[in-house]
Amino acid sequence: MNSKNFLQEELTPLMRQYMKIKEQYKDSIVFFRLGDFYEMFAEDAILASKILGITLTSRDKSKENPIPMCGIPYFAADSYIEKLIKEGYKVAICEQVGDPKTSKGIVERQVLKVLTPGTYLPEGVKENVYIMAMYPTKGKVGIALADITIGDFILYESKKSIIDEIGRFEPKEILIPKSLEDTIKFENLSYSITCLDDWKFDYMLSYRTLLEHFKVTSLKSFGIEDFSTAVSATGALIKYLEENKQKTEFKKLRVLNLSDFMLLDTATKKNLEIFTSLDGSTEGSLLGVLDETMTSMGTRFLKNALNCPLLKISEIEKRLNQVEFFYRDSILRQSIQSILKDFPDIERLALKIKSGSISPKELKALKEGLKKIPNIKSSLAKAELLEIKELFDKLFELNEMVNLIENALVENPPHTVTEGSIFKKGYNAIIDELRILAHESKKYILNIELEERKKTGINSLKIGFNRVFGYYIEVTKPNLHLVPSYYIRKQTLANAERFITEELKELESKIIGAEEKLKALEQELYIELINKINPYTDFILQNANTLGYLDFLCSLASVASKNNYVRPEICEDEIIEIQDGRHPVIERLIQLGRLPEQRFIPNDLLIGSEEQKIIILTGPNMAGKSTYLRQNALIVLMAQIGSFVPATKAKIGIVDRIFTRIGASDYLSKGQSTFMVEMIETANILNNATSKSFIILDEVGRGTSTFDGISIAWAVVEYIAEKIKARTLFATHYHELTELAFNIECVKNYTVVVKEWGDEIIFLRKIEKGGTDKSYGIQVARLAGLPQEILCRAREILQRLEKREFQTFKPLARQLDLFFQGDPILVELAKIDIENLSPQKALKKLRELKEMLKND
Q1: CA distance 685 to 203
Q2: Domains of the chain
């Protein structure tokens, strides 16, 4: 049912007001404020009632065409809004902006804000909530990225794939030109796509939008004049935010220099379980291990650091110096962490001050946080390390602002300004008087009543109230002769008469409406207080950045201290040398008792030299090949965010990208075969890796037939060795690939050591040089619990296969030429399929072989 189906003349004034507003926000569900409820009407009501699971009713039920409606309490709106946003809808918040007392007719209403997936922050969320605009042109894409909750705005241009750039920041909402809606393929449902008219990405229009928004005359001050596609995306994004009434003041336009940061694509983040484990939990992730931050700012910094590892050695070394400082000084570290515990999110609160939306309760929290900064500065004051002194200098003691708030707010201020009771006694004389009148009026009336009894000598005199006369003095008829002359008769009753006095009417005028006056005055003074505090917001934001970074450093130092991590050596050489490396997550899960192992078995890695750029790692399933691959990738990643690493020694040559090809189960539901996904991801690696990359390949080729798989895996290793020359760990169960080490100088074989004990095997979890020619598949199947009958039959079949008893396996000979390096005549003999060879063809083949022998 569409709102256009309702004739205007049939609508009430209220519904005409609603329909007019809805016409302006067709793509949003309008939350229309009526008293204590947000109401939804017509098609919005039908849609929302299904999503939110609330009752659908109708307005004007007696009419022939009643309007569907549903509603929610305004004070419980957040949970309902969150559901709609998660479903990809926008929500337009329409509030009363007129005063019901002074409005003639319908109270004026306006949409104050439109909430979208990229602009809505659910309660309690610590991480960044990004909205992204993309403007692809030939050969590159312009990116604009905003987190309006902390005023962060990033823009840059990239020649990487669009999917890679989305994976870098994982935005909640993406804006694209409408003309590209069908050409850009988005495969992830974790973000919402919003298509805008192409003209909104026009460069000149965007340029003017930026000048107006940032109130500058040129973009040269931001250093972005040469980023034309990024400017186009930025203008479209800012215009979109303005149209949706998102009043955000961005700290500045920040240009992201891609040469400073490693790109981690979505597959790598998932395969290495950086932010969540494969089952979706944080505990089984690298983030879960490293996050001992105390503040929301610290958590965000850690997540951003993991998202964008550093590439500049100088920046990495600076972080390592700072982490080492706190690693060595545990007393100082613990002192700072205790101060930061329960610290408010002052970054988001500062932005709320700028937008005028901070509540009294939040302002009190901000003050309590800022009061701790002198203690933090005092803790850092004695540090001799230059990089720590820099942090000291970037913290500001805002005592004047703290005092302003301290002197103004009550001890337990309300959650909203409209609740009243915001200011302390003594802050404002009028507020004090109104508060006494509003909250102690009964006491005042009782005092006047007692005074009048004393003055007149009428002990039965009482003061009452009704809506007609207001406050009055009631005197019974036997006492009328005692009534003083200044009493003004107002009403005669059967047994009494009622009077008023000038004093009583004056008090009445003060009492009636005192609460409304009090709330109005408190709101006015609260706005004044916010305006006084607003000039300090840039200093608050600087404090937030510094405290977030400080929290991040202390977290890394704390984790390193608890888990016996070491400082890595960072170099430009294309080498990775790790002694006794450990998987940080698995080691942590063992410590917590989540895994049955008693301890983690460490292993070494040396890769990157001319003699050893590629390692072929063989061994049975469950022996630890995948763990070894992942732990080394995680150690590299940790080193490049400035963290200590789980090893006894580590030397890391800068890695520009980490590529992983592990598993493909998630794509089966999208209609892509495991093998197709495997090949797409492998192709992505081969097309984008450089000699400074680190490649992790696990069982490439397993998604197809054995011989095809071996052939592809063989060719992939050859290509990496000859063309890319990247450091590569290649785990496989194809033992044939160990032959590569004899043909390519930079390829070396390693295997996971297995101890055979009769018919059983014991996984020793140690990596050593050499290959293996056994899969131990049947032994692994036994460990997995397959029935004994199946295991016995499998052994029987295996023995017959090894003796070449099955005719169906004779085609194996046709594949040997890929690996066989011996006599060519024997190769040709191996190719002959005797069972399907006619006598004529047999004679012909015999002549060919004889001729080959003669020529040889």
Answers
A1: 34
A2: 3-115 (3.40.1170.10), 131-256 (3.30.420.110), 270-419+537-563 (1.10.1420.10), 429-526 (1.10.1420.10), 569-785 (3.40.50.300), 788-856 (no CATH)
